[in-house]
């Protein structure tokens, strides 16, 4: 499992700022990848290439932030695919191309996302069911609703949604702006509010938090509600970016959502989360896929690439953690010998 709560050793000096190991790792990896793209696949970092890929990176970032909240509580949300797909079919099939019906469809999608999150939170947080079992069952239920609404047939998105989610402002895709806005909100709440700090404390040590009088089960349940709202927003973005989205758009996002959380350095055991690193990891993973396509790797191998990125994240942080632990133990032994 990953253990990334430790900070990189900062240089001595009054102006030194400790950085999370996950942030340093993902930023360095992204810079290396960009240099490789410039050398071997310039089209992947051209304006046209980035303009086409950044909206999908933004979608990965949004679902990654949602999954991060659940992972911080030591769980996994496998109902992500169904949640995203349900939002897609609701905002495309209910309006049927009518801009006036878009807002009611969005509100219905948001409402169902809250209901789904509450159901997941109740099963996991209060009934103490295994998170994987509970959410995979909920995912099957959500896909049942998806088929009931869409019949498995795609439908063209409304012009208004295409303009809102798929448009650009000053050359920046709107999906990217939405992702950045969500990042700011999540970062502020998690790092600057008492509720956010309690959320991280509960994820790190539920038993200690319960002994301190914190409402552990409520916070654990709310993680699933907030995660589903993220998935809903991602689904709405996809519906606007893609002219004719299918009923299975969420299937391709489950593995990337976990991969970016791990690459960002969030421990799979729960605890502290890293929203900024998660968004950077989303860009890295999306850019890695673009680089692979540019050098001739078939699209069918994208899942393998994402799985390798997940393994890379787990492996790198585990190795660094063990190395740091060994150094600390050696230092303690040396201090004991000197004292003797």
TrEMBL record:
**Per its UniProt record, what PANTHER family does this chain match?**
ABC TRANSPORTER PERMEASE PROTEIN YPHD-RELATED-RELATED, RIBOSE IMPORT PERMEASE PROTEIN RBSC
Indicate whether Cell membrane appears among the record's keywords. yes
User: Where is this protein localized, as stated in its record?
Assistant: Cell membrane
Span-the-membrane segments of this chain are 20-41, 47-71, 102-124, 131-150, 170-190, 221-241, 253-269, 276-293, 299-319
Organism expressing this protein natively: Puniceibacterium antarcticum
Give me the Gene Ontology terms describing cellular component. plasma membrane
Keywords attached to this Swiss-Prot or TrEMBL record, sorted alphabetically, are: Cell membrane, Membrane, Transmembrane, Transmembrane helix
- The name this protein goes by in its record: ABC transporter permease
* InterPro entries membership: ABC_transp_permease
Q: Which GO terms describe its molecular function?
A: transmembrane transporter activity
The family database entries (Pfam families) matched by this protein are listed as: BPD_transp_2
Membrane topology, as annotated? Multi-pass membrane protein
């Amino acid at each position: 499992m990953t253990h990334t709560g430790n900070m990189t050793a900062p240089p001595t000096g009054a102006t030194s700022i400790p950085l999370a190991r996950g942030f340093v790792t993902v930023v360095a990896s992204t810079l290396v990848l960009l240099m490789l793209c410039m050398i071997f696949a310039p089209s992947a970092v051209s304006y046209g290439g980035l303009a086409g890929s950044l909206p999908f990176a933004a979608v990965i970032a949004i679902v990654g932030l949602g999954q991060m909240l659940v992972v911080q509580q030591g769980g996994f949300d496998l109902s992500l695919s169904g949640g995203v797909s349900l939002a897609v079919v609701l905002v495309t099939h209910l309006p049927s191309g009518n801009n006036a019906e878009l807002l009611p469809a969005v509100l219905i999608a948001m409402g169902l996302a809250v209901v789904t999150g509450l159901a997941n939170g109740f099963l996991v947080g209060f009934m103490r069911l295994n998170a994987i079992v509970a959410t995979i069952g909920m995912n099957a239920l959500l896909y049942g609703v998806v088929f009931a609404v869409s019949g498995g047939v795609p439908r063209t998105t409304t012009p208004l949604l295409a303009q809102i989610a798929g448009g650009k402002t000053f050359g920046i895709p709107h999906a990217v702006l939405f992702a950045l806005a969500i990042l700011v909100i999540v970062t502020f709440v998690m790092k600057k509010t008492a509720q956010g700090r309690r959320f991280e404390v509960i994820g790190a040590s539920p038993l200690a938090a319960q002994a301190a009088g914190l409402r552990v089960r409520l916070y654990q349940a709310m993680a699933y509600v907030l995660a589903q709202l993220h998935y809903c927003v991602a689904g709405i973005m996809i519906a606007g970016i893609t002219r004719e989205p299918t009923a299975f758009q969420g299937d391709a996002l489950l593995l990337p959502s976990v991969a970016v959380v791990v690459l960002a350095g969030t421990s799979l055991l729960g605890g502290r989360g890293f929203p900024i690193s998660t968004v950077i990891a989303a860009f890295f993973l999306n850019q890695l896929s673009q680089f692979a396509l540019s050098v001739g790797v078939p699209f069918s191998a994208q899942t393998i690439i994402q799985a390798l990125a997940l393994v890379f994240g787990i492996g790198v942080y585990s190795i660094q953690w063990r190395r740091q632990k060994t150094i600390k133990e050696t230092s303690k032994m040396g201090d004991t010998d000197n004292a003797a």
